[in-house]
TrEMBL record:
The keyword Isomerase does not apply. Keywords: DNA damage, DNA repair, DNA replication, Ligase, Magnesium, Manganese, Metal-binding, NAD, Zinc. The gene is ligA. The chain holds residues 1 to 329 of 668 of the full protein. GO terms for molecular function: DNA binding; DNA ligase (NAD+) activity; metal ion binding. DNA ligase that catalyzes the formation of phosphodiester linkages between 5'-phosphoryl and 3'-hydroxyl groups in double-stranded DNA using NAD as a coenzyme and as the energy source for the reaction. It is essential for DNA replication and repair of damaged DNA. This is DNA ligase. Belongs to the NAD-dependent DNA ligase family. LigA subfamily.
Length: 329
């Protein structure tokens, strides 16, 4: 892009304002006005301009921040460990770049775990001595909303674990495609505005003050990570996923351990085709370094772990997805 510094500054300012508005509509109000593809494209543009003009970088730029402000109607929850976002890769080359960065930051011998990127609402579940005591949204990463009562209505969230573990687990609450279509049919029949997509339907259902609403919405959950786990001796993320499942925490069965990035790329490609067969929406594949010591070597940026990335499905897929939903409701 051929721009002088003043033009770049103006462009950066416009992009920041637009992205802030989109983020507010999406994360705080659950009613996006643009597609994820459009949002991601503008975010990429902002990131590359900020890289080109490092003097114009600021810590409050949307490129440095996670999620959106919690709603005041809910009690606030301070996360013990921040709930972050994920870096993105949009093609095979960017996955190979990620692999190179990982190997520069830790050993050259790295295994990855690939998981489906569930398109729902990130939540944290806290268990004390095996008892579910608190559920929260991610919010802005530091402060979330207390939605314990709503989360209690999801049947796959155990109120008591198989063992008296003290653990804070993280996962994605989502609305299955079938429930989403049925819900929108009812909404339309009642003359109400339908939800834009299952992600917003799930988020909108869980961020209601009356838990009876969430109870009627057939929500579900997959757990995929840990905030804090007292006395855990796991050495890898894959070991943790297995232990979580054994505790009664529902993990997604499609995860796979891969020995190198080429194996990861094959897995990613296979899901571009298999994606429509799932009963829930996914918007990509999450790739995580398996070994926990290596994760620690790599650490975090202000916004995301350096030991993980999200491969986002190609744009035409995103457009098809929106069109399909628009046509079917
Ligand atoms: P993200 O959605 O790209 O990735 C991070 C999230 O992935 C995590 O917080 C977690 O909730 C989720 N996730 C799902 N499955 C996971 C798994 N197996 N392991 C780990 N995490 C998993 O980032 P984000 O910060 O949550 O949101 C940014 C994205 O939201 C944008 O890229 C865009 O697609 C969308 N967005 C859209 C608009 C809009 O107006 N359309 C506005 C803001 C954001």
């Amino acid at each position: 892009m051929d721009m002088n510094a003043t033009e770049a500054q103006q462009k950066i300012e416009t992009l920041r304002q637009e992205l802030e508005q989109y983020s507010y509509e999406y994360h705080t109000l659950d009613t996006p006005s643009v597609s994820d593809y459009e949002y991601d494209k503008k975010m990429q543009e902002l990131i590359s301009l900020e890289e080109e003009y490092p003097d114009l970088q600021t810590p409050d730029s949307p490129s440095q921040r996670v999620g959106g402000k919690p709603l005041d109607a809910f009690e606030k929850v301070q996360h013990d460990i921040p709930m972050l976002s994920l870096g993105n890769a949009f093609n095979d080359e960017e996955l190979r770049d990620f692999d190179r960065r990982v190997k520069n930051g830790t050993d050259t011998d790295v295994n990855y775990v690939c998981e489906l990127k569930i398109d729902g609402l990130a939540v944290s579940l806290k268990y004390e001595d095996g008892v579910f005591v608190r559920g929260a949204t991610r919010g802005d990463g530091t402060t979330g909303e207390d939605i314990t009562k709503n989360l209690r209505t999801i049947r796959n969230i155990p109120l008591r674990l198989q063992e008296p573990a003290t653990v804070e687990v993280r996962g994605e609450a989502y609305m299955p495609k079938r429930s989403f279509l049925a819900l929108n049919e009812v909404k339309e029949a009642n003359g109400d505005e339908p939800f834009a997509n299952p992600r917003n339907a799930a988020a909108g259902s869980l961020r209601q003050l009356d838990p009876k609403i969430a109870a009627k919405r057939n929500l579900d959950i997959f757990l995929y990570g840990i905030g804090v786990w007292e006395n855990d001796t796991s050495e890898s993320h894959s070991e943790r996923l297995e232990k979580m499942q054994a505790l009664g925490l529902k993990t997604n069965p499609e995860w796979k351990k891969c020995n190198d990035m080429e194996e990861v790329i094959d897995y990613v490609h296979s899901w571009v085709e298999r994606r429509p067969d799932l009963d829930y929406e996914i918007d990509g594949i999450v790739i995580k370094v398996d070994n926990l010591d290596q994760q620690e070597d790599l650490g975090f940026t202000a916004k995301s772990p350096r030991w993980a990335t999200a491969y986002k499905f190609p744009a035409e897929e995103a457009v098809t997805k929106l069109t399909e939903i628009e046509l079917s409701v």
